[in-house]
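Lab manual, section 2.4: Encoding a predicted structure.

Procedure: take the sequence of the chain (94 residues), apply the prediction step described in section 2.3, and record the output as structure tokens. A sample record is shown.
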Amino acid sequence: MSVVGGNGQDFWGLSLREIQNVLAGHNEKRRRDSNLVMSQAWHTAAFQRIKKMPKLKNVLDEGPKRASRHMRPVQVDEVKAWLSKAPKMKRQGR
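Recorded output:
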């Protein structure tokens, strides 16, 4: 079990299904790691063959785009209308 991230004492308390899940997770991690290494090797070889390197920001994955945190004017009007109908609350303590 120490190979897949546990210690030998934990092994004896696991059911067969739990052992299968641990091993499946370990195999998935090894597959992803192998794919990453192969992808890095492929890109290294590809970049050696091109004459002009692309800009790094064009090659890197930036992840998902963030939504704008600003409300559109229509949304502002809807919130104001909603707040005008809400009961007024008194501030406490100040």
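Check your result against the sample. The chain has a mean pLDDT of 83.
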